[in-house]
Design brief:
Strand content: under 5%
Length: 98
Amino acid sequence: MTNNKLDRALQSVGMITFVDYFEKFQDASLTHKDLVDMLKRDKNNNYKKSSIIAKASNGRLICKMSQDFDALKTTAFASHADKTTIAKARLLLAERYQ
């Protein structure tokens, strides 16, 4: 996956969603439908079904293509992400990759 494709996939899933559902996107035992259902039940979002499907697909794709480290790193040092998301991304990086 090129940097442009990674950036586009991360933009589609959203940094907040990627970090919040990071472990779920990595969990191979969860189906695409499982991920979509989880995102639908999330009280913190009001996305349309097509957006939820895109978020689930792109989050899973990032992990499947072994770009999860790069996506977390991008999020952890993003100037436009909120502080909570940045902190979660940095914590995940520290826990998983150091």
